[in-house]
Amino acid sequence: MSVVGKLWLIGGTGDSVRLVQSIAKHSLPCLVTVTTSTAINLYPTHSNITIEIGKLDKEGIKQLCKRETVRGIIDASHPFAINISQQVMEFANTEGIPYLRYERPSLKQNAQAIYLDNFEDLVKGNYLKDKRVLLTVGCQALSKFKSWHKNTVLYARILPKLASLKMALNAGFAENQIIALRPPITLELERALWQQWKINLVVTKASGKQGGEDIKATVAQELDIPLIVIQRPSLTYPQQTEQMSDIIEFCYQCFQG
């Protein structure tokens, strides 16, 4: 198939790896952008797949699309990475570039969990007081909990990266309050960690099965520990899907005409 230009897939999650694997099988030219060098090894090696590392701002998005003659954009970024999604949607709309959001399936709400719209509602409330809290919310959110270190015992689980460790330390977490692990985390390990630290409250994000939300809900129920789930940010996408078949159809449509 001889085509001009490329698809641009915004990656960095396990979902995006599966999408790229499928696109590679169809031999469609695709540029994948990720934010860390460790993510590169997760993607398939294929003559039609190019991978670039780095965070993009508005000007970077513009230059990338011009340089690669981007024919269509597949946004498979993390559900909480709203900045890149907002910027790309705005640019795609202005330039008339087809855009499709891949949204990982949400889990059915657990009747025993507490669902909050944002971190602000959590830190301003009284949910954390005098608790032993495990935060599985990503390193960027840890600074929001600085004011709580005097009133509760906080533990943070982060990715095993130097930048993540620095952010946790800067947010007031001591070395013995940090554990660095790369997902996926098994149910057995999840349970053991909660028991080791005598956790009696867990905070996570609504990141779906891919983010281990289902396992945390199961362990919370087993150990009778409250689970607070921060809901995904609400964005209006021009079009979105949870289906792989829709992604491939979109890819072919981008090269028509």
From TrEMBL:
Matches recorded under InterPro entries: Precorrin-6x_reduct
Superkingdom: Bacteria
Alphabetical list of NCBIfam families matching this protein: precor6x_red (TIGR00715), PRK08057.1-4 (NF005970)
Pfam family for this entry, one: CbiJ
Coiled-coil residue spans: none
Keyword tags: Cobalamin biosynthesis, Oxidoreductase
Gene Ontology BP term (one): cobalamin biosynthetic process
Membrane-spanning ranges: none
GO molecular function: precorrin-6A reductase activity
Pathway the protein acts in: Cofactor biosynthesis; adenosylcobalamin biosynthesis
Protein name per Swiss-Prot or TrEMBL: Probable precorrin-6x reductase
